[in-house]
Write a structure and sequence with these properties.
homodimer; alpha+beta; seven-stranded mixed beta sheet; four-stranded mixed beta sheet; 8 helices; globular
């Protein structure tokens, strides 16, 4: 049994400073962070994207990732989906008293590795400790700042009839990986989270086309939620083809076993793009060149019909409405 | 008994959208937030300050404030202490299943009122719900972005021998107000939190002097921690006069009763400034004109002696070292 986090690690006193100086700052060290003032300071000129997300995933380590990698990817991806190049992130920890310091160290190292992969730096942070039973091991908030270069105007409001819907790969992997770990389920084909930073993928797409209208990562609520959001925000209909949507066999099997629909299961390394039909193939080619976009596919299109709704043509040739999920599918997956 | 938060409010589905559309967004509405994309987008040109803080205060409502006001003030103040003009903040909620929606509404309205007072806008947000017993009613993270105008270079590293230490008012009020509420203590003189946005106070100070070297708000760990941080970061000694430090009678009485030292108790509406001696009186005058600086006082100075340490001359004429607090004084006060 290793050393554990105490309430005093969150007090603002000597133990807090020790935790910051010995565990939290060394892996993340950079000239802005190491200033250790109340705010990070840097120059920025242009159109800025700013986003925030808290991560409460249970368990904090899961096949394919951990809460640290998730927290960096989630915020990097939100910035990327606005067409921004992610630059700076913050890291705020809420730790439950009793967490092993060694586990915290692993999470911070994962934050470091993922930030390096994405090319962002952690410039400011915060640590709070709450008494045992008042949190669940570790919650993380990351906020992020990026720069939007050029004249890109990407928004969920910009989908237009005729646009193609492109999905960057198989769906449902993150949600099923977390759930299988949490519930101790074993499937024939193990499922690994797709948790990944998508900023380089998006950079390739933006270099290939100036007619990408909407981008979003289908996290909570899955692909179904994201498509419904696009349909509502843009006041259009969306039609998708079930046969074109990639689903890993392990995810398909697990979902069938549990009566879940992969359309509603969270992803953390996938994106949906709404693209002008004239550029769809070019964007698809660019996506397939990136390691996180190899399975990209055109899965449907935007239409003037059934406004505000998503309709799926099934494998057997019928059509069904894909509704916004009403409630909780899988809690605590991000 | 009113309506309560369910796990499904954090699912990304229809209940999530309802909560955001009906409770969270209306009070905070502004053109950037209402875009509802993955990131907020705005123009920014210059030297930017960026900060983050999570708030886990218990209870979430206390004399003089609540977790919403606290979350806005804390981040506004961190930006202000870097000499930045706060502009934009994010609001990320981690809600324990079962929280009354009416309480959430009150917190969001408090966020709105405090943001209005400070002149900042909430541009992006996030909501997570965790199962009952896995959080403590409500945790909030706010991150903030501000602009540093002019050539101000304010840092905890910049304290120089001869500089005067100015404190903006009485200490210990926030910590004692939260603790008295949490523990159900009644004192003869009730203590109210000083929780307040200090950006207008700082703007007045910066207009009055270009020789403010360091600024910090003495939150967790109190005045003692902040002064010790300055002494270490700048490699100087600091001497303060006990008789010059304002302490509200209610705080003094409560601290005596409980064996606590107000030097170590958190403040949420106070600042410490390290100022060139030639400008100290000018800065003091500017501070006293602001409603949150009426009791400002010069409490000591920076010295070449006892480097890295804070020494207090007591009322009875002796000297004692004011050390960094080792552990937890009062947990969960911010």
């Amino acid at each position: 049994m290793g050393e554990k986090i105490l309430l005093a690690h969150g007090s603002g006193g000597r133990l807090s400073h020790d935790l910051i100086d010995k565990i939290l700052t060394p892996p993340l060290s950079n000239p802005i962070l190491s200033h250790m003032d109340d705010s990070a300071v840097f120059e920025l000129h242009g159109r800025v994207a700013f986003t925030t997300d808290s991560y409460v995933v249970n368990p904090i380590f899961f096949p394919g990732g951990d809460i640290g990698r998730l927290a960096v990817c989630g915020t990097v991806n939100d910035l990327s989906m606005s067409g921004a190049r992610p630059l700076y992130i913050s890291l705020a920890l809420i730790i439950e008293e009793g967490l092993e310091i060694e586990e915290l160290r692993r999470v911070v190292e994962s934050v470091r590795d993922t930030a390096e992969e994405a090319g962002v730096i952690v410039v400011t942070g915060d640590t709070k400790v709450v008494d045992r039973g008042k949190a669940d091991r570790l919650f993380i908030n990351t906020s992020g700042i990026g720069l939007i270069e050029g004249k890109s105007d990407i928004s969920g409001c910009n989908a237009r009839p005729g646009d193609k819907i492109i999905l960057s790969g198989g769906i449902g992997e993150h949600g099923m990986a977390v759930m299988s770990k949490r519930e101790g389920l074993q499937f024939n084909l193990p499922v690994t989270s797709d948790c990944a930073p998508l900023n380089h993928l998006v950079a390739g797409m933006l270099a290939a086309s100036r007619r990408i209208h909407s981008l979003r990562d289908p996290t909570r609520g899955g692909l179904a939620s994201t498509l419904n959001e696009f349909a509502r925000q843009s006041g259009v209909g969306i039609t998708i083809e079930e046969a074109e949507i990639p689903v890993h066999d392990g995810v398909r099997g697990a979902c069938e076993l549990l009566g879940l629909d992969p359309l509603y299961i969270a992803n953390e390394g996938k994106l949906v793009a709404v693209v002008h039909p004239g550029d769809a193939d070019t964007v698809l080619d660019a996506m397939r060149k990136n390691k996180y976009g190899g399975q990209s596919a055109i899965i449907g299109e935007v239409t003037t019909e059934h406004k505000g709704r998503v309709v799926m043509k099934t494998r057997i040739g019928s059509s069904r409405i894909v509704d916004m999920p009403a409630g909780e599918i899988l809690p605590r997956i991000c």
